[in-house]
Structures are given as C-alpha cells and as structure tokens.
Amino acid sequence: MFDGTDTVLVIGAHPDDEVLGAGGAMAKHAAAGDEVHVLIVTEGTTQQYGDDEDLIEEKQTDARTCAETLGVSAIHFGGLPDMRLDEVAHVDVNAAIEDACAEIGPDIVYTHSRREVNRDHVEIHDSTLVATRPGTDVSTVLAYETPSSTDFAPGTDGFDPDLFVDIEEHLETKIEAFGSYEIEKRPFPHPRSPEALEAIARSRGAASGVPAAEAFDVLRAYR
What we know:
The chain is of the alpha/beta class. The protein is 39% helix and 20% strand.
C-alpha cells in the first residue's frame, strides 16, 4: 500500500462519506502515485432534502471539488435513491459496485463498516463484499468508520479496526476537502465538524503511536 503501484476505489453511500472515512488515506495514496477513484452510490439528496435536481448537481459539484483537493483521479456516481437502498433490489446495489470494479479494476477497495446506524451504509458494505468476492482481482478490502454513523451504532458487531494508517501529513488536506461539503458540516461537538474530525484522527493516532491516523477493519486480504 502507498507505493504508487495500486489502483484504489473508495466507495461511499452518500457524498461526504468517502472523505469522512478515508480522506486521509485517499490523499496519502494519491501523494504516493496510486490511482484513486471514488464511487458515490446514491444521489445523496432525495430523502433528506427532497427531489431537487439542482441540489443533486450541487452535491456532485461538491464531491468533485473534494476529490480534486484529495488528488483523486476520477469520481463516479451510481445515482441510486438516497436513504432507500434497503428498498432497492440487492442485485441492483451489487451491480452498481460490480460495474465500477469492472471499469476501474481496483487492487484495494475501501467501503463502509457493517456497524452503522445508517442503513444505506450497511447495504453498501454487504454489496461490496459481493462485488469483491474471491475470484475478482481485488487484493484488499478495508472498512472505514463514518463519523455520526459508526459511532452512533449500538453494540459491538461490525467495526473492529486492526489497521491504522498514519495521516499526519494529510490531515489538514482531509479537513480542507471535507469543507467542500458545506451543507453537511455541523458545529462542534458534532462528529461531522472539522474539530471533531481532527479529534478522531488524533485519538486514532494515539492508539497507534503516531500523531494522527485513520482506522480500518481488514475485511479481506489476498496475498
């Protein structure tokens, strides 16, 4: 990882999930010379803000700005309905991710944890495991935590980080990139605030002996 030889795909259910969960790692991959792609599976708008085509376009513009800040090579949009993936046929959610994997050919895939209060995130997790099942060319599948979803979920099932990535050199870039999503920002101490994102990174860093880190659950690794 982070050696400039990998193609990376980061999958998020909604615009901003990708940077919240793996923004530092994305910037680190890009800085190392890896080819980084993002897939946003839903349009991220209809359930929360109504069927507003202008807002959908605004969120896609924000996602592109975020991706550019992180050094992402390309961003892809699945266009599935926001907050209703549990009503979409499982094979259709699978297909959105499978099609992206077929087009991009990733070596490393980042996706949602299964320990999530947001049901869309759980659906994406399950479909990612289908799309990256044994026999594909994906060598590594990692789950990230999503502030205000993973941390709000009860119980202990799902997110159990066993990989910590030093993002000290990229933390400022992650926070700047998240700022592209002005509509999603919240005041501190909400987890989706710049101050909270830094606090989470510092806490994960303290747990792994570096100044700032992101934590991941290794779902699959083939060598």
